[in-house]
Write a structure and sequence with these properties.
alpha/beta; 5-stranded antiparallel beta sheet; about 55% helix
Length: about 400
């Protein structure tokens, strides 16, 4: 019996050492077992003690498992603490970056606003509800108001666009406005011609229309002045065309008269170049003066032959006293004229040949023995009269004194 109690005390001591590692219910159970020791059989007690030892071994194993689970929970708590610390760092970094990005966006927004405000182009942002969302300084000046509060939130066709309600060219009628001429309504109800472009875009989460426009009043005025000037020019051009037509008609008539006069003068000039003079019955004189060229030489031959046929003369006197020089071609024409007169049955005498003209005739190597020549026109006229059988009486010298 004493041995059993020693075993019980040893078991209780072991249980006390491990009491902190087992639960309360199991300790109570062991206590109840101890209370039963005094009233049970020793063999039974040994069996129960063996069962208790097995239970203790099982509890020890479970305790080891609980320790491992506790260690896992501790590790998980430590990892959770690390993750929380990392999450806090990430949160602070994200907050810093958000603040930086927000500052950058604010600066960009301020820059964009400053640019819009300083642009010499009117800019208005209109929502799909046709309410004005934004307006820049130039647009305010063009509309004729001092404060944006007078425009923002207002319906565009009441304050800016003269379109009727539910007849918006873009939102209602689906028109495209790209560099198109439109009308802007100012504070006083005056219509201002503008050149307008509308671009649909999304600002934030809202679909809006961004309208940009410039005042083209001066351009329209210049176009009207140009149109009027063009009309005046067309009118002046019509007057000038009429005057030109009249003047052209007058010039045409004058030109016809002038052409007729020139032709008459040309004929007169030809006659003066080679005047055929009938100085006596059956006697023609052809006096030549001035410069003799090839064309005049041909004309002289034609005039001479025509005069011979017309007057039926028998003798012709070709007087070259007034000719200063003649080249070989002109001299050849004159000699052929003399030959042609001879072929028509005429007797021809050449008078007034100058020395230089004589040299030209000699240089042609023409047989001139058959050509009758006289010193001057008087001698030639005497020869011609003799040829037709008329003899001039001898003139006695006139004595003065």
């Amino acid at each position: 019996m004493l041995h059993v109690w020693e075993l019980f005390r040893q078991l209780r001591s072991d249980l006390c050492r491990e009491a902190i590692e087992v639960d309360y219910e199991r300790v109570v159970k062991v206590g109840k077992v101890g209370a039963r020791i005094g009233s049970v059989n020793p063999n039974t007690l040994e069996s129960e003690l063996a069962a208790l030892r097995e239970e203790n071994a099982r509890l020890s194993k479970e305790n080891d498992k609980l320790k491992l689970q506790a260690q896992g929970v501790a590790d998980a708590n430590a990892r959770a603490a690390e993750l929380m610390a990392e999450l806090e760092d990430a949160k602070q970094l994200l907050q810093y970056r958000v603040e930086q990005r927000t500052a950058e966006l604010n600066r960009a927004l301020n820059d964009t606003t400053n640019i819009l405000e300083s642009m010499p182009v009117g800019v208005i942002v209109v929502g799909r509800d046709k309410k004005v969302r934004m307006v820049n300084r130039t647009a305010l000046e063009m509309v004729g108001v001092n404060s944006k509060k007078q425009i923002l939130g207002q319906t565009c066709h009441y304050r800016i666009c003269p379109a009727e309600e539910n007849h918006c060219p873009i939102l209602d009628l689906g028109e495209k406005v790209d560099n198109s001429e439109r009308i802007l309504l100012d504070q006083g109800g005056r219509y201002i011609p503008i050149l307008k472009t509308v671009v649909p875009m999304t600002i934030g989460d809202e679909d809006v229309l961004v309208e940009a426009f410039v005042d083209i009043t001066e351009r329209k005025r210049a176009e009207e002045e140009l149109r009027q000037a063009y009309a005046d020019l067309e009118e002046a051009k019509a007057v000038v065309d009429l005057e030109v037509a009249q003047r052209t008609q007058q010039l045409t008539e004058s030109e016809a008269k002038l052409t007729e006069l020139v032709e008459k003068l040309r004929l007169s000039q030809k006659q003066l170049y080679a005047p055929v003079i009938q100085v006596w019955d059956r006697i023609l004189v052809l006096p030549l003066t001035g410069f003799m060229d090839e064309e005049r030489a041909r004309h002289t031959m034609d005039i001479l032959l025509s005069g011979i046929v017309d007057t039926k003369s028998e003798v012709v006197i070709l007087d070259v006293t007034g000719i200063a020089t003649m080249d070989t071609r002109v001299t050849g024409y004159l000699l052929r004229a003399v030959a042609a007169a001879w072929l028509l049955g005429m007797k021809c005498v050449v008078t007034g040949i100058r020395p230089e003209v004589a040299q030209t005739i000699v240089s042609l190597h023409t047989a001139i023995g058959s050509i009758e020549t006289k010193r001057d026109l008087q001698a030639g006229l005497e020869w011609a009269l003799n040829e037709i059988g008329f003899t001039l009486p001898k003139m006695r010298p006139l004595v003065v004194g």
